[in-house]
């Protein structure tokens, strides 16, 4: 079965003031697949992932050229409701960022902000989201304790549950394991592999082994340009570009 294109970037350029951060990016992201963005610091990975739910809008003096379509719809078009776009394209950040509220309130927050007030529905959704984030068994008896009492790995899974509660179709992970220990990292990786059955996933990672372990497709960016993109196995075993090969072998980074 052919992979379905979920997101398509066409001739995307992005500028911070005069500085060009992305240069003519063309990329297709597939449904129910994990796409990894790799490359050295400052290559444009985080800029690109933040464009996918228009978090890039929050930075002043930026502009973009080109087109990014989600299910055929230009997300930078005039008719796009950015709030519903961000609900549909959720994001999990590098550092776990739970709210200073209870575990339950962290997950219910998005539902309540969107106007949901059926207490039974909210409780069911919170439980379902914590199950999906593989956290339920660890927190089911302490839902009304502060989320800040959780370990780093648990906090990151809580942030994933918070994202899942509003039923996104795409989840963006911006270096989700950067501040986690190896055991927590492994549980997040296993979770991502489970989540791709239901969601389209894009992950920025500095960790090459992580990209090799969990992604189906890999995009290598360097100095704002997309150097190479394809199935992860091919990128890691038979890269077409010398620059890709040198980066994967650790010659620079």
Task: Write up what this structure looks like.
With 253 residues, the protein is of the alpha/beta class. It has a domain at 5-96 and 169-248: Rossmann fold. The chain has 10 helices and 10 strands. The strands form 2 sheets. It has a 6-stranded mixed beta sheet with strand order 6-7-8-3-9-10, with helices on both faces. Helix 3 crosses helix 4. The chain is globular. The chain starts with a strand and ends in a 5-residue tail after the last helix.
Outline the secondary-structure elements.
Blueprint: E1 5-16, E2 19-30, E3 34-38, H1 45-51, E4 62-70, E5 73-74, H2 82-88, E6 89-92, H3 103-113, H4 119-132, H5 136-139, H6 152-165, E7 170-174, H7 182-195, E8 200-204, H8 208-214, E9 217-222, E10 225-231, H9 232-237, H10 242-248
Parallel strand pairs: 3-8, 3-9, 6-7, 7-8
Antiparallel strand pairs: 1-2, 1-4, 4-5, 9-10
Helix pairs in contact: 3-4, 3-6, 4-6, 6-7
Number of strands: 10
CATH level 3 topology of the domain at 5-96 and 169-248: Rossmann fold
CATH architecture of the domain at 5-96 and 169-248: 3-Layer(aba) Sandwich
The helix fraction, in percent, is 25-40%
Looking across the biggest beta sheet, what order are the strands in?
6-7-8-3-9-10
Low-confidence stretches: none
Percentage of β-strand residues: 25-35%
In terms of quaternary structure, the protein is single chain
């Amino acid at each position: 079965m052919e992979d379905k294109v979920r997101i398509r970037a066409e001739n995307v350029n992005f500028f911070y003031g005069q500085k060009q951060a992305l240069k003519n990016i063309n990329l297709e992201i597939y449904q129910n697949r994990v796409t990894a963005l790799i490359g050295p610091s400052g290559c444009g990975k985080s800029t690109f992932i933040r464009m996918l739910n228009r978090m890039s809008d929050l930075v002043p003096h930026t502009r973009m050229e080109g087109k990014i379509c989600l299910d055929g719809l230009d997300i930078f078009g005039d008719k796009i409701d950015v709030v519903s776009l961000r609900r549909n394209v959720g994001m999990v950040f590098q550092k776990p960022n739970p709210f200073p509220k209870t575990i339950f309130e962290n997950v219910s927050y998005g539902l309540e902000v969107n106007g949901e007030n059926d207490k039974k529905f909210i409780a069911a959704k919170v439980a379902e989201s914590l199950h999906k984030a593989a956290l339920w068994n660890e927190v089911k008896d302490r839902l009304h304790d502060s989320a800040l009492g959780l370990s780093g790995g648990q906090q990151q899974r809580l942030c994933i549950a918070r994202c899942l509660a509003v039923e996104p179709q795409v989840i963006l992970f911006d270096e989700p394991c950067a501040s986690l220990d190896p055991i927590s990292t492994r549980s997040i990786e296993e979770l991502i592999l489970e989540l791709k059955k239901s969601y389209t996933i894009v992950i920025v990672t500095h960790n090459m082994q992580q990209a090799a372990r969990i992604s189906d497709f890999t995009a290598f960016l360097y100095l704002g340009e997309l150097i190479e993109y394809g199935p992860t196995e091919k990128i890691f075993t038979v890269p077409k570009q010398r620059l890709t090969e040198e980066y994967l072998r650790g010659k620079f980074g």
